[in-house]
Amino acid sequence: MPKLKNGDTELLLLLLSWLVLPSVTAVNQTETLPGCQAKCGNLNVPYPFVWSFDPCGAAFLGEQDKYTFRASDFYNATSLVDIPIVINFAVDNQTCKAAKKNSTAYACKENSYCIESIDDTGYLCNCSAGFEGNPYLSHGCQDVNECEDPNNNPCKGICTNTRGSYNCSCPDDFYGDGRKNGTGCTKKTEKAPVLQLSLGIGLGLLFLLVAGSWIFYILKKRELSKLRKKFFQQNGGLLLKQQISSHEGGAESTKIFTEEELKLATNNYDHQRILGQGGYGTVYKGILPDQRIVAIKKSKIVDESQLALFINEFAILTQINHRNVVKLLGCCLETKVPLLVYEYVSNGTLYQLLHKKSGMLSCLPWDVQSRISHILDVGIMNEEKTQQVFAVAELAKRCLTLKGEKRPSMKEVAAELEGLSGFERQSWLQTVQQSNEEHKHQEYEQGDLYSIPVGSYSLNDTSGQYSLEKPMLQSMNVPR
């Protein structure tokens, strides 16, 4: 018999005997009558709990809250058979962990699990979820068919029983998880296909938009690359490469910049980077990736008939290295109008040197300043040799002639400066002289493309005319 625990079960002692007169006296409580049990398992039964006229009684186990005494129970004891009994018992005197080590004696069979008893006197077995029966018997725990009762199964839609569990689903034209405690099953309306169709069309259009943008970007990039190559060839890029390669050291001293490099250097030609503007172009301040500061000339028009001459003179100018000449570092031929890249001069312009209060001529009388400012570059006054000073002054006077045809060309100025410095002329200077003879009587058009505007390397000149040799002339006006 299982071990009964005091307090875990309720013992009801019912007297199934005839009522007698109230004058009947009770039997001595210490007496134990023959034939009557004093214990039920390990539980002591209080005795006597009977009237003296009939010392024998009957007792039963039951849950106290499940039984209500009635007078008819004295006459009809069969009404007691349906009272539930709660029994707390345990298997062996081991824990689940220890019991599992001995598979032969382990009491929990298939589809069951072990739990510890609440008073640590052993272990108990329960059927696993989805199974019911006796866990202590082989095959005692059987699968519970949750779908067997259509009214009480957990599914609102279609219930499919599985071993130890079940699945719920919805019929066609319904959506949801099919569970009573979930979203259930809802009939699909006409809006659902419309929503799906709209979503599909929207995603398709989005894909086409992204794909179209990507294709447009690729085609635009290819078109821009072809256009840059076209401008490079059109602006004499191939001829310039030949000119540079023909001069010794030309590749090191001259660089052909790309359009992207100059855009990056000028912050996409930001207005705050403008050094000066003229009628034929704008000069920007640029910062190269190596942190060099340069002046970038962006012209507005181009004379295609002068491109060959420009390329020849450009190749020559890049070879000049004189302290009174602004260095021409390179150019960009990938744009419709070629861009020129000059060395940036931070000492100011001739106008600033002549007219500002802090200028070098401020200490001289005004009439002397006025006379000198018309014929002499202030930067040349620092020359040590008087003969060179007079020679440069004469050159400056010729350069300031109002009539363009009487002014020396840029090549002539470069040649004379090289001669004044005492350096032996290179072979390319001989070519310059020959070219000078050929173009001696040629007049340059007013407002040549490759001139530097007044706002940048300005001479504050009064003629208002600009020619191809002007960048060289103006560059000499800044002390180095």
Name some characteristics of this structure.
Phosphorylase Kinase, domain 1, 12 helices, six-stranded mixed β-sheet, alpha+beta, about 475 residues, Laminin
Quick recap:
By secondary structure, the chain is α+β, with helices and mostly antiparallel strands. It has helices at residues 96-100, 191-234, 237-246, 250-253, 259-265, 307-317, 350-355, 366-375, 386-399, 410-420, 427-438, 470-475, and strands spanning 11-14, 39-40, 43-44, 58-61, 112-116, 123-127, 131-133, 141-143, 158-162, 165-169, 174-175, 186-187, 255-256, 274-278, 281-287, 293-299, 328-332, 339-343.
Q: How does the helix and strand content classify structurally?
A: alpha+beta
Number of domains: 4
Based on CA atoms alone, the radius of gyration comes out at: 57 Å
Q: List the uncertain runs.
A: 1-30, 377-383, 423-432, 438-480
Order of helices and strands: EEEEHEEEEEEEEHHHEHEEEHEEHHHHHH
User: How far do the termini sit from each other?
Assistant: 119 Å
Give a description of the structure.
The chain has 480 residues and is of the alpha+beta class. The protein folds into 4 domains: 1-89, no CATH class; 96-143, Laminin (Ribbon); 237-343, Phosphorylase Kinase, domain 1; 352-475, no CATH class. The chain has 12 helices and 18 strands. The chain has helices spanning 96-100, 191-234, 237-246, 250-253, 259-265, 307-317, 350-355, 366-375, 386-399, 410-420, 427-438, 470-475, and strands at 11-14, 39-40, 43-44, 58-61, 112-116, 123-127, 131-133, 141-143, 158-162, 165-169, 174-175, 186-187, 255-256, 274-278, 281-287, 293-299, 328-332, 339-343. Strands 13-17-18-16-15-14 form a 6-stranded mixed β-sheet. It has a two-stranded antiparallel sheet with strand order 1-4. The longest helix has 44 residues, at 191-234. The radius of gyration is 57 Å and the shape is rod-shaped. Residues 1-30, 377-383, 423-432 and 438-480 have low confidence and may be disordered.
